[in-house]
Amino acid sequence: MADEFDVIVIGAGPAGENVVDRAVRGGLTAAIVEERLAGGECAYWACVPSKALLRPVDLAGEVSRVPGLSLGPIDVPAVLARRDETVSNFDDSGQVRWIESVPAEFFRGRGRIDGPRRVRVTAEDGGERVITARQAVVLATGSVPAIPRTPGLAEARPWTSHEVTAATSIPERLVVIGGGVVACEMAQAMHGLGARSTTVLVRGDRLLSRMEPFAGELLAESFADAGIELRTHTDAVRVERPEPGGKVTVHLPEGPPLEADELLVATGRRPATGDLGLSTVGLADGTIVEVDDSMRATGVADGWLYAVGDVNGRALLTHMGKYQARICGDVIAARARGDELPAMRDLVGGARSPQVVFTDPQVCAVGLTEEAARAAGIRVRTVEYDLGSVTGAYLMGDGYRGKAKAVVDEDRRILVGVTFVGPATADLLHSATIAVTAEVPLDLLWHAVPTFPTVSEIWLRLLEAYGL
Ligand SMILES: Cc1cc2nc3c(=O)[nH]c(=O)nc-3n(C[C@H](O)[C@H](O)[C@H](O)COP(=O)(O)OP(=O)(O)OC[C@H]3O[C@@H](n4cnc5c(N)ncnc54)[C@H](O)[C@@H]3O)c2cc1C
Ligand SMILES: NC(=O)c1ccc[n+]([C@@H]2O[C@H](COP(=O)([O-])OP(=O)(O)OC[C@H]3O[C@@H](n4cnc5c(N)ncnc54)[C@H](O)[C@@H]3O)[C@@H](O)[C@H]2O)c1
């Protein structure tokens, strides 16, 4: 095994793997270091298993809206078995083979920066090895759940996204702290799979607070229909769990405490940089690695350090981490050749990223919310439309509820943000992503005729509502 490579990547999640792929395609040699499983958090404890758990719940919602169809009880062991299959039963040999086929060198162990262009790899048996990079070191170590300092909370060893996505049984009574994406998706998954009581504690006034307000409102209606209890303007102030894994008591600012069999904390993430050797190159341990639009770390001299994916804090989404990784791999290869194409830049930025929340209703958004667009000084006009009154949506089932909103930059007559909330809207989002990213003028968008009778007819309705 060589000790020197053009590029060394630390972390073999979706972001790290894609850097290696692009750098090698660009003619460079590469090594990647992974301490747990190649494929990263996304493949084993986040995106993939969470969607496998949500799929039957989503489908059950669809079936319940179609008269003439009925669904028996969900076979939970079968759902969990399929979830295990989707995560390859926590076996990463297929991913490792893919990395080797790139070809890139795979090192199993913890990687730490050890001064400029040097990475120290510590294997599980304690064996150490130092490898060096001729061109670049790329950090792709992802993020870990952030646990609030609420008294008793850490000691209660609550579930985080890691445990809930790997659950081997469904708790009878579940309390969820947080109103973001993980909280919403996993509350619905656990409740749909049989939790008898699910209570979600949100410290603000609504779910999904970074999205258009109607997203959280429609989701809250769906929670209420399903019997999920949503409590806003509240938080856990103290937690007790005398027996490890036993009953847990969650004390609230007022009223009686909640008793549960499990507690899920879904209060955001922090970058996985606590033990990464950042301080050996002048950066602060435990912080986000700030990067420019080419993914190059801004706080390090000589431009040899890059960071992609969750670790740079731009957009905590797999597809955005992979986008950054493609840019990063191409940029490193181009810089090694001495040329740099201007297109190799993050043109999207974090806040504008497309995102689908896989709840029922699905919540899909790209670009800016109305509030963010106004804050950015854009002269904004918005149009909203009831998705349920689009024929294609109505045909999906009785009681289809949904809404769409477009945020228009009036000076440029282009869309700067679109949100769809409703069942079966996930795959509709990419049409909005194209319109927003390519800045398609509304007068041209008008000629993109949606097919009848599909949910995509919402485009026609939105443009008509705008006045076209
Ligand atoms: C429950 C949940 C559901 C999600 N669902 C979605 C979704 O549906 N769609 C979506 O786009 N995003 C989703 N996300 C977000 C998504 O998981 C992350 O944005 C994505 O995993 C980030 O990819 P990454 O490569 O940056 O990091 P990760 O996937 O976290 O991979 C980082 C890798 O680095 C390794 N590592 C860390 N430190 C070291 C070290 N020092 N040495 C060696 N290896 C190291 C880790 O073991 C890990 O394998 C979800 C997140 C959660 C928590
Ligand atoms: N479908 C998807 O795309 C998907 C699914 C899951 C996760 N993710 C990504 O993973 C990331 C992490 O998700 P998340 O839900 O953990 O984070 P989040 O940032 O989406 O939500 C965090 C929630 O916790 C609350 N909170 C924060 N600190 C708190 C505290 N001390 N006490 C009580 N509440 C507190 C916030 O108000 C918010 O409601 C997200 O940024 C998201 O992009 C994406």
Automatic annotation (TrEMBL):
The transmembrane residues are none
What is the cofactor note?
Binds 1 FAD per subunit.
Entry binding sites for FAD: 51, 111, 141-143, 310
Residues that bind NAD(+):
178-185, 268
Q: Which residues form the Pyridine nucleotide-disulphide oxidoreductase dimerisation domain?
A: 354-459
* A molecular function (GO) term: flavin adenine dinucleotide binding
Which cofactors are required for activity?
A: FAD
Q: Which family does it belong to?
A: Belongs to the class-I pyridine nucleotide-disulfide oxidoreductase family.
What InterPro entries does UniProt report for this protein, alphabetically? FAD/NAD-bd_sf, FAD/NAD-binding_dom, FAD/NAD-linked_Rdtase_dimer_sf, Pyr_nuc-diS_OxRdtase, Pyr_nucl-diS_OxRdtase_dimer
What's the protein name?
Answer: Dihydrolipoamide dehydrogenase
The FAD/NAD(P)-binding domain sits at 5-320
Q: Which SUPFAM superfamilies match?
A: FAD/NAD(P)-binding domain (SSF51905), FAD/NAD-linked reductases, dimerisation (C-terminal) domain (SSF55424)
One matching Pfam family: Pyr_redox_2
Asked if the Swiss-Prot or TrEMBL record annotates the protein with the keyword Cell division, the reply is no
Q: Which cysteines are cross-linked by disulfides?
A: 42-47
